[in-house]
Amino acid sequence: MFDAFGFATNSCRKRREALQLIASGLKIDLVLADFAMPENEGVELAKAIHATYPGLPVIVVSGYGNREELKDFGEARILQKPIPMAN
User: Fold this and answer.
1) What is the CATH number of the domain that holds 42?
2) Looking at residues 35-48, what average pLDDT do you find?
3) How many helices (H) and strands (E) does the chain have?
């Protein structure tokens, strides 16, 4: 599926689904993981990707003020909600 900007996108609701998709060999350039995925798996997904595929960039999107669980990923890999729209 292509998004409004012309990028091919895939969506997964669970960490296991995302890891299976990555392991399938599909070319993936970037993973956006919501901190509040079902069962709070966003951070666990990011950690698993970082451990197994260290060259695959992961951005964790979070609307929570407490980012203690994300401290190992560095500020560059956290996108804080709400995300301002460009004019």
Assistant:
1) 3.40.50.2300
2) 80
3) 2, 3
Whether 32 contacts 61, CB under 8 Å: yes
Q: Would the pTM of this model clear 0.70, i.e. be above it?
A: yes
Could you list the residue range(s) of the whole structural domain that residue 25 is in? 15-80
Both tokens of 10, joined, read 């895939």
Token duo for residue 19: 């890891």
Cα distance from N-terminal residue to C-terminal residue, the chain: 26
Q: Is the pLDDT of residue 22 over 90?
A: yes
Amino acid letter, residue 63? G
Computed on alpha carbons and rounded to an integer, the radius of gyration of the chain in Å comes to 13
Q: Amino acid identity of 11?
A: S
